[in-house]
Amino acid sequence: MDFTMPEELRMLRDQLRRFVNDEMIPFERETCDGEKLKPEWRKKFEARTKELGLWMMEVPEEYGGLGMNLMASVIVWEEFARTIALPARGHGIMGPHVRSNLYDLTGELKEKYLLPTLRGERIACFGQTEPDAGSDPGSMRTVAACDGDHYIINGTKRFITGAGDADYIQLMVATDRAKGSKGGISCFLVDMNTPGVKLGVQYNTMMGDKPWEIIFEDVRVPAKNMVGGEGDGFKFAQKWLGHGRVHHGARAIGVAERCLELAATYAKQRVTFGRPLSDRQAIQFMLTDMYVELEAARLLVYRAASMIEAGHQARTEAYMCKYFADEMAFKAADMCMQIHGGIGLTTDLPIEKMWRQQRSYRITEGATEVMKMVIARHVLNAYGK
């Protein structure tokens, strides 16, 4: 078992570290308007990612991208998470965001949705969460009923990031509620200007982003707009979410590492009662906990990414990334804030924003308790007599 990082990944990490340290962190309070990157900074950062050879890094080579593997992507996500110069959610700065199942589209759907998205001409959002179905997609109440060569969709989606800017939605709906997540959920591509699709409430969150509610009232969608077959939706979602949970872990590593850098530096500089904070055992123990848990999370994430690259499902490993790393990074941000005292509560430092974002990730895209519930099933199957 070799834990040595390949030379090309070390070079990538070092290159990104310089970019983040020199060109992002010094300006990180200026780059965003709320949780949207300002146009002038988007233009600048996208130009730099092209220069650095990162443009369309996860797009397959056959579509003009780099086809970067998951381990390399983990390094990129880690380094960019060390700064609040970029929005924590939504589209990044490395080209259009395309969920993997769109690459399987053919014919008319490929021409209408995939290719324009890759060219930056169309923007997609993803709709799964509902008022009564967040971590429990089997309880989904947005339904699609077959009507000849169309489906009629009714229901409501909630907390949909980017819906206000999207041209179409990758929509998860129940086509057989009795089957729930075991073959009862399907995925459709629905244009946002389709009659019956309406934006509802826009939520103001403590993280700064403003996700939407989307209402579907007798929305007629061609049957050919179904991605895959009927009942395949949750299968697609699990594939995205597996990579997404590794992404969560990688992002958490970057946040925790920045918090450790800030906390250790401040502890050495801040003098109280004639001695630097770094001399206090209470502070040393906080820093130790931050460091040990950071390194443990790094191993979990790198292992999961390596397993997925090798063709393993790594479902439990991906759940562990989401659970352990998101919890770890929130604790790191919280201890970093505590070490800084009053100045850590101000918006002059990035700590409070990292704290707010990490608190949210313990809930969104799979709550900690759901991660633990699924891991517990594995434990009982693997170790129970």
Description of the molecule:
This protein has 3 domains: 7-98, Acyl-CoA dehydrogenase/oxidase, N-terminal domain (Butyryl-Coa Dehydrogenase, subunit A, domain 1), CATH 1.10.540; 124-231, Beta Barrel (Butyryl-CoA Dehydrogenase, subunit A, domain 2); 234-383, Butyryl-CoA Dehydrogenase, subunit A, domain 3, CATH 1.20.140.10. A hairpin with a 2-residue loop joins strand 1 (32-33) and strand 2. Helix 1 runs parallel beside helix 3, helix 3 (70-80) crosses helix 5 (233-269) and helix 7 packs antiparallel against helix 8. It has 385 residues and is an alpha+beta fold. The strands form 4 sheets. A 4-stranded mixed β-sheet has the order 3-6-7-10, with helices on one face. The chain is built from 9 helices and 12 strands. It has helices spanning 7-24, 39-51, 70-80, 107-118, 233-269, 281-309, 315-340, 351-361, 368-383; strands spanning 32-33, 36-37, 124-127, 143-147, 150-160, 168-174, 185-191, 197-202, 212-222, 226-227, 271-272, 275-276.
